Automatic annotation (TrEMBL):
It comes from the Bacteria. Belongs to the universal stress protein A family. Residues 1-134 form the UspA domain. Pfam families: Usp. Signal peptide: none annotated. InterPro entries: Rossmann-like_a/b/a_fold (IPR014729), UspA (IPR006016). This is Nucleotide-binding universal stress UspA family protein. SUPFAM superfamilies: Adenine nucleotide alpha hydrolases-like.
Length: 148
């Protein structure tokens, strides 16, 4: 169905990550590609005084290891990319760079920050130049698995 899929995976629920990756594998054309992306959100410099200098580097390396391990475990051939920045903007720009025809991401439980700042999903849907598939989170009781 799709040549190139950007599969956005956060470091939250392992079950959600499994579901997204399996869905991407089911939707990609033979010979197509899956790019698993995770974005480590920018931390304003004024807050970095409380964090170790290598925080961002460590977060990048750890996320990449976890995602590569998940792809291997599920036998899903994918390229893993971990970037630092603003998630919605980076997902949209990566889709453009890679000529992706689908961005696959997961919704979450809405909270007050979504009303004030809008959600990543909303921003991606509004600005993406390709199709966007939003994987709806099932009942919370089903999602009580440890994080990635």
């Amino acid at each position: 169905m799709y040549r190139t899929i950007i599969c956005a995976i956060g470091m939250g629920s392992r079950e959600t990550a499994n579901r997204l990756l399996r869905r991407a594998a089911a939707l990609v054309d033979d010979g197509g590609s899956i790019i698993v992306m995770h974005v480590v959100e920018n931390i304003p410099r004024r807050h970095l005084t409380d964090l170790p200098e290598e925080f961002e580097t460590t977060a990048l390396v750890e996320a990449e290891k976890k995602l590569m391990s998940l792809c291997k475990e599920l036998a899903v051939p994918a390229t893993v990319e971990v970037r630092i920045g603003i998630a919605a903007s980076l997902l949209v720009s990566a889709a453009r760079e890679k000529s992706a025809d689908l961005i696959l991401l997961s919704s979450h439980v809405t909270d007050i920050t979504d009303y004030v700042f809008s959600s990543i999903v909303e921003k991606v849907v509004r600005h993406a130049g390709c199709s966007v598939l939003i994987d709806r989170r099932p009942n919370q009781a089903q999602e009580d698995t440890p994080p990635l």
